[in-house]
Amino acid sequence: MKFISTRGNAPELDFQDVIITGLANDGGLYVPEAWPRIGPERIRSFAGRPYCDVAYEVMAPFVDGTIDDVVFKDILAQSYASFNHPAVVPLREMRPNEWILELFHGPTFAFKDVALQVLARLIDHVLEKRNTHATIVVATSGDTGGAAIEAFKGRNRIDIFVLHPHDRVSEVQRRQMTTAGADNIHNIALEGTFDDCQQLVKAMFNHPAFRQAHQLSGVNSINWARIMAQIVYYFTSASSLGAPDRKMRFCVPTGNFGDIYAGFAAAKMGLPIDRLTIATNINDILVRAVKTGRYEVLGVTPTASPSMDIQVSSTFERLLFDAVGREGASVLHMMNSLNQSGSFTINPDALSYIANNFDAIRTDEDETLKTMHEVYVTSGEMIDPHTAVALAGARAGGHSDAIPNIILSTAHPAKFPDAVEKATGARPLMPAQLSALLDLEEHFSVLPNDLETVEGFIEANARSTTSHD
Ligand SMILES: *Cc1c(COP(=O)(O)O)cnc(C)c1O
């Protein structure tokens, strides 16, 4: 299978090159040139099968033989063995036809583990095969950094630099990043927002000399393998609730649009989905864009769900690409406008394409806490603020008794103990792996929001250069 850029002006790549490359060199994102199909019989056969087996079947058409089958199956087995639940991503019923899909049983208690455990092993394998090194730069609003560090720490062929917005991540999130204690891990606390972090990462990718010299590679949701690994749980959860013979709804707490885009990909591959609901906190650029056709960057306001405190949702570009009939030039036009004026307009056809697939609902801070409180008093369960945004969105959207509503739960409540306590009056029990972080020494460098300074820091600390043979 070939992968093409959403901006229509970068070389077509195969799977291995796509995962090593991250961002396309025309500034676009890679997508498969055509959507592979999974027929109803196969979807039916997924019910009750081990997660790992279904993962292989869903991902194999993208990998398309570029990774040896035995190696790939082994990578999947190792990746999901790091999860502390036998179902990997268990479903829990909250109310009739309302299900919580728990994606947080990985080593860092956030859904990012589901994809990064796989992606790290894939990248390592390809670098090993090619006998080369890479430098990974990653922007994080909180959870990607910890999950990437956990997945990449100690790997010989990779240096990883993680940019997080200084003082805008939770203490647990920060400690997960800064206490890894491996010398291939470098933490940058950037004086800015997540969008500033993401902007710098993109700028480094768009700086050819720097990108080449350090063999830059990206593991944000710009990397196709992240999306690919996330498609799997749409199939497993839906098949276990009766797909393809019933349609499903999914409601997804959304920031960079990677997780919900994987749901769109699942639909493209043949999974019958009734609606995909984009749930945001008060940083609601996507809700405004889907309702009005105007994508306009406003300021970011910190909330109790920091992993969604985002204005520029990178992966939305992939949806736009399909929405404009896969015309790279149209996507480029919108993205240029975004760079120049901080906004663009989605044309009416593209907007109705989006509206046919997605709902979008914003939940404010009060409602988020109220939802956490209500779940706690009715069930005794705690949910994290990101999950609460999605659950509130799903409930506000109303629901039909005939259609199961699957709410993606993206973080363990113990990662956000202050918000949970504020909402419920009780503090979540800390898993031992998280409380152990409190005693470890932290390593990070506070840097200004300045491309040259950050590039200089990477220059000074990376081991990888093109001189490696
Ligand atoms: C990353 C993250 C999200 C948002 O996912 P996107 O793929 O960026 O839309 C939501 N919740 C949590 C806890 C996250 O870590």
Question: How would you characterize the overall build of this protein?
Answer:
The protein is α/β, with parallel strands linked by helices and 469 residues long. It has a domain at 88-108 and 225-424: Rossmann fold (3-Layer(aba) Sandwich), CATH 3.40.50.1100. The chain has 20 helices and 15 strands. It has a 6-stranded mixed β-sheet, with helices on both faces. A 5-stranded parallel β-sheet has the order 8-5-6-7-15, sandwiched between helices. It is globular, with a radius of gyration of 21 Å. The mean pLDDT is 94. The chain binds pyridoxal-5'-phosphate. Residues 110, 112, 143, 221, 253-259, 307-308, 386, 410-411 line the site of pyridoxal-5'-phosphate. Pyridoxal-5'-phosphate binds at residues 110, 112, 143, 221, 253-259, 307-308, 386, 410-411.
Provide key terms for this protein.
Rossmann fold; 15 strands; five-stranded parallel sheet; 469 residues; binds pyridoxal-5'-phosphate; six-stranded mixed sheet; 20 helices
Gyration radius from CA atoms, angstroms: 21 Å
Low-confidence stretches at least 5 residues in length (pLDDT < 50)? none
Find the CATH topology of the domain at 88-108 and 225-424.
Rossmann fold
DSSP strand (E) fraction?
15-25%
Name every ligand kind in the structure: pyridoxal-5'-phosphate
- How far is it from the N-terminal to the C-terminal residue, by CA? 28 Å
Task: Give average pLDDT, whole number.
Answer: 94
> What share of the residues lie within helices?
40-55%
What strand line-up does the widest sheet have?
A: 3-4-14-9-10-13
Shape: globular
E-strand count:
15
Total of DSSP H or I helical runs spanning 4+ residues: 20
* CATH A-level architecture of the domain at 88-108 and 225-424: 3-Layer(aba) Sandwich
Mind describing the biggest β-sheet?
Answer: 6 strands, mixed
CATH class bucket of the domain at 88-108 and 225-424: Alpha Beta
Backbone structural class: alpha/beta
